[in-house]
Amino acid sequence: MDRLQAMTVFVRVVETGSFTAAARQMGMGQPAVSKIVAGLEQQLGTQLLLRSTHGLTPTDTGQRYFERVARVIADANEADTLARNSLADLSGRLRVAAPTTFGRLQIIPRLGRFLSAHPRLEVDIELDDRRVDLVAEGIDVALRVGPLHESAVVARRLARGRRSVIATPAYLARGPTLISPKDLTHHQAILYTRGGTLRQTFRRGEESVDVTLGSRLRLSAAEGVRAAVLADLGLTVSADWMFLSELRTQAVVRCLRDWTLPAVDLWALLPAGRLTSARARAFMDFVTEIIQQVEAEQGAFD
Fold this sequence. Notes:
The chain has helices at residues 3-16, 19-26, 30-44, 60-84, 100-107, 111-117, 169-174, 222-230, 244-249, 278-298; strands at 49-52, 55-58, 91-98, 120-127, 141-145, 153-161, 163-167, 188-192, 199-204, 207-212, 214-219, 236-239, 253-255, 264-271. It is α/β, with parallel strands linked by helices.
């Protein structure tokens, strides 16, 4: 039996908790399964399983080996799927990381059609504004908004999101005049501390204006920025997609509409040095469809 087959047997033993159950699932004899695992332990020079009358449990080394080997087997299965060029029969588990607000507003409401298209697929979505470690956390694909700082990833830009100065009519009604970008220095800006900046560059045709906003309120989560704006606490410079429903109902408005701000990039990140799984490709295609839909309906992306 080759190395990959031995790994597969070991993974099945850990998952089922016994040689007998693993043998039954794989259509093999129990002695053969036990012999394969013993041979793997001998080849590696370490014990992978603790054997007792209560069953089998992996050692610490065995658990770490199991987690890595399970990923290797999943990648091998994905390679087979890619070779067959079949996205219609995806199965297994897809682990996704996405910024909380983008996931809540744009991904989750539309996720039903992705799940319906792939009924055998399990999806874990980590909603968090922090920059996750794809390899350490076993993430298949991560969505990232803004500039990239990682080097050990494969990055695919999915879209460029338009940005605007956003505020509620109530805040603007009681605030100072806001006619030109320079007027922003007299306003209270709500700052997103994970990637946001108080210095902004506005353009109108050939004209360019640099402005440093004043801020008393800084928040580490985009959800907090949304809540603060909707509570009339100030204005913010934001990607339009963060406030699409409120823009539609005019709960908030775009300010300085004849001026433009640099767009913000939306990226899909993949672990470097690993075959891109069919599951990850299908999810990236799904997000691209969402972006196209949002752009067609509400014009938030380029």
